[in-house]
Structure formats: C-alpha cells, structure tokens
Amino acid sequence: MKHINVALFVPDEGCPHRCSFCNQKTISGKTRKLTLSDIDKAVEIASEKGDGKGEIAFFGGSFTAIEKEYMLSLLQRAKMYIDKGLFEGIRISTRPDCIDKEILTVLKKYGVSSIELGCQSMNDEVLLLNGRGHTAEDVRRAAKLIKEYGFEFGVQMMTGLYGDSDELAVKTAESLIALSPDTARIYPTVVLEGTRLSELYEKGEYTPQTVEEAAELCARLLSMFEEKNIKVIRLGLHSGGNVEEGFVAGAYHPAFREICESKIYLSKILALIDKEQIPEGDITVEVNSKCVSALVGQKRCNIQKLRNMGYNCKVQQNDSYKKYDVSVRLTK
Q: What is the overall mean pLDDT for the chain?
C-alpha cells in the first residue's frame, strides 16, 4: 500500500480578488460547490488503496476566506476520517492576507497539518499588476505565524506573470527560500481563456513565456529550492480539468517537470566535462536508475545534444547515487 492523498477543489470560493491569470473552472474542471458527499466519495475511493498516511487536501480558491460555517463543515467532515486513522492530516491552500491567529487556532483544532500560501511573487509591483490584492509583507507575516503555530509550511510561486521577469522570479525564489518553507510549488504562467491575461495577450500587451523559456528559468529555480532541502512538490500546471481546452498561450506541458530536470542533468554533465577536460569521444554517464528518463530527456534530446558536441553517451545506472547526482568518464 502507498500514501494516497485526496485532492478536493473549492473553486472560486472565498477569493476576494480575481487575479489576472485565474480561471478555476478551467484549471480544476469543476464549477459546482464542493459538498460533504463529495468528500465522502473521494475518501472512500482513496482509503481502499491507501496506507493511512496520506492527506485530505483542499485546493482552489482561498480556503480560509470562504464563509466560516461552510469552511467548518468541510473541516469537520475531513477530520472525521483523520480521527478514524484513514489519513494523517489535512492540507489547505490559501492567501497570505487570509491568515491570522484566530484562523490558525481553528485550523489546528480541526486537524489541519499543512498550509500552503499562494505567494506567486515577492515583488509588490508584480502583485499589484496581476490583481493579487496582497503584498510581499503579507507573505512574510503569514509565514511567521504559520511556523509559530507548528504547521507544515508550503509556498507557491509563479513565473512569467504580467510585469515579471526572470531576474524578479529568481529574487522571489530567494525571498521564499529565506522563509524556510517545507515545500514549494512552482507554476509557469499559462494564459487561460476568460482571464485578464488573455485580454492583455490578445491586445499585444502581454507576452507569455514559451515552454522552453519557462523551463530554462524553472530548472534554475528548482535547483535553488532543492539545494536548500526544500521539496518542490509540483512544477508546472497539472494536466486534467479543462486546461487543454481552455489553453490560450504560455508555458503549459504535461511533462514540464521532466523537461526542467533534463536541463539540470545536461547542465551537470557539461560542467563535469568542462571541469575534467574530457575529450570528445565515447563517455559513460552514471545516474540513479529512477533518474535515467530525465537524464536522457524527451525524445532523447540530451543524448542527441551531446552527440552533436562530439560525445557518444552511454548511460549506466548506479542506485547509490542520489537524485541529481551524476558522474562522467571516458568509456573504456
């Protein structure tokens, strides 16, 4: 048996603002209000395969900003399954300006164990341009409170927002890393129909990142978080819902994380070739067996790039290596 998490979407519930990029219907594929029966059905399916160590997660909207009685009813039903030992805790996603001591006390009472903040950027001008309705200081204040109350703490950031840049995104990552979160999610901006960004895009006032541009940046951000032992639990907008149908432009790819990880591996291989002054010819690259696909790259793109540089690469598995560990040597 394995950890099974239950993801429940609360679309457009509680959000006091409409962000430039947001269309919860398209992202989640759900429009009607989440019911207690929905929780029961999802838990029933998941608990049959789970080991009791997963989480019930409420995503979409701003969980701590929804009508209080409704929020409590959802938490109470979820807590019932925590108390039965079917899950270990509850994870919620919310806005930085919808966190205070009173809310945190309630969340603790009902078994919430993890809180993720939708930070998106730590640049106040970018936040303002995209209609976020909160500031970077709100993020820092909320993060401090969440950690003081003993919750697992997660951050969510975006790249390629209206008015953003690669340099500002790197600064956002640095600022979020300084908050010492336990987890992070990185989402390159995707332009969805029915959003303000789609209007700006159609007017020629906003140019979204391509998949390649976003992957170059996000590979760097991924390395930054991982080097500080902050687990990146999501990289790129998840597939499913109505994302493909509502897609207008931007950096969406169902295997976006693997594209980013492939860039990390290629960068490490090239750095070792340069450091060790390895001449052109046959080389052997060692990596953990679970990382072979990412190293090789989609359609063997990394192998082809190395071949174009004069290196015929053989991949060898070595499970003593950790993720992102790699070695290069001349093939004997």
A: 92
